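Appendix B, Record 12. Input sequence as logged:
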Amino acid sequence: MEYFINCNTSPLTPYAGGLTKEQVQHLYRRLGFSASIQTINDQTGQNANALVDSLINEALNKPILPAPTWATWNNSNYPADDDAARQLRRAQQGEWELDYAKSILDNNLRDRLSFFWSNHFVTELDVYDCNAYLYEYTNCLQRNAIGNFRTFISEIGLTNAMLYYLDGAYNNENRPNENYARELYELFSLGDGNGYTETDIEETARALTGYVERGEVGCEAVLFNPERHDAGSKTIFGQTGNWGYDDVIDILFTQRPNEIAQFICTKFYEFFVHPDSKREDINLGSYPTGHPRGIINELAATFVANNFEIAPVLSQLFKSQHFFDDESIGVILKSPFDIYFNLLKETNFEYTETTIATIVNYSDLLGQTLFDPVDVAGWQRDRQWINTNFIIGRWITTRDIVMAFYESNAEQFRTFALDAVGPPANLTTSNPEIVVRAIIDKLTPKGMYTEEEFNNCMSAFKINDIPEIYYGPDYIDGGQSIWNLMYPSVPNQVQLLIRHLTRQPEFQLK
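Logged structural output:
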């Protein structure tokens, strides 16, 4: 598969006019995990401003997942027997994985963002190993996903998951631990080496001391002990005083607002628009129109002007000509969750909790483990998802999911084809090319790249036991063509085509 160079030259100016079907599909694939044929058809022709406003408002008003019964449990709530306690913890984790996965599938932008932030403010369940901490952490992600970034970064640092993961719970006045201070700047707010020094990290670590009261039972909330806080003078970004946790956040956003905005808006750009934001132009005094760095500069200015509210930045980006430019469509490699969830949403096939649990398991096998990114830097996305083992794993697991759908209800494959073609042609067409093209256009961002690839799709669809003469208007029986979408073999033909498509490079893109 060839990787894409960013050739987008459109400005951040709002997109005018009605959106095409391809553009609406692009919007839903990037803001969420795609959408059904009906949703896409309903929104085709819609004004970008109105559609984006509705999706952002929906995200802002979505209720968060309710607390499970074990949300505040500590070790004393579990059985004394270690094996029984371990089994119960794992059952609770599986329950929460399922609830959270269903949430990110159903809630489009809000939980697409909470999932995005879980790979930015990284923690690993394997490290902190406490279900109550897991709930608190995901609750923080959901509440702040499209809120205020300054509030978000302040709250996430004091979640118990983060305090344990990056050793804040062991950071005291006698022996400051620099782990969280380093990642606060390097990974969470400024970027590697951007606007801070080793001294800033050391002094920040001292300011963050004191959150070390871990309780005696285990899996209890970490509390602040002022006697374990370093009360001496510290100098952070040139500001000197007896700083504590809140002061660190205030100084960071007061002294480095532009660096924060640039770093976070670059992340937004690479996640939602194009993985290549670093295209360079030599000997230019400023970036030309549509250059990704220029686009990011404009977004960063919006971020700062709106006091680090996330929604205005995303609104400006998603309404722009740059976002809807053809060069932004189909240039990001799907993550494992994208592969499976997009297929569910786009086909509208019936799924169960078992289906979601299977998808969570398959994503784990392909390197995207829910609540457990690979390390503190998170999944690197895009190219990381494609290697020899992972691509074969994508083919096998997606085939298995498609076959399971077919075995549970083959007729839904006919329904999908009818919906993809659309009325009135869906009931009368005798041309398999119309059907194949409609399905391809639904499941890929730009169709097949060559005529040869399209012909291979046709071959997958036109199974051997149907005579070629049955296709087309020349073979009539009872006033209509022998083959049409009501022909008995159609469900099988559609599932064979989908299975073929899932192995193609075009299907791997969004």
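The longest helix spans residues 82-106.
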